[in-house]
Amino acid sequence: MNKSQEEKFAACYEDLREVMQLDYSLAFNVFRCFQDFVIESLETEFEIDSAVELPPNANFGASVKIDGKINFVVGVLAEKKIFHELAENYEHFKLDSLDEDFDAVSELLNVVTGLLIVKIATIFGIEEDLEPPRFGQTEKSFGVIKILANVGTFYLYIGRDEIFDAVE
Description:
By secondary structure, the protein is of the alpha+beta class.
């Protein structure tokens, strides 16, 4: 990761400290794990733009909560068209419905958070669990990290609070 990406994350962390409520080192490791996975699996460029309030039209998303001694949620949100692009790029084939898009992005987050809990166990000696993914359209407003990628602009949420209701 180049220095400017690290500096951009540090600036976002400062702006989103109340949302994240995580130690900087942990938040940065969550971000790096997510970034590395997305760059590799989606074969895309990936750059932090800034910390922003989630735009109302970028409310399609999915999230996964890591539960245990260190609780936090990782989510991806985007406009419907970009959300679809993220899902198709992850799956590497055409998807025909919003439900398939939600499933694909949920799976992407399951893999990323699975990697994270292994990393947390290795570094901190703490066993964490993953809750089932949540997804949908949110009407909530909260701080996110704006990400620029080949598929378009999307938003990364790292925080303590759930952003979607439980899936039934």
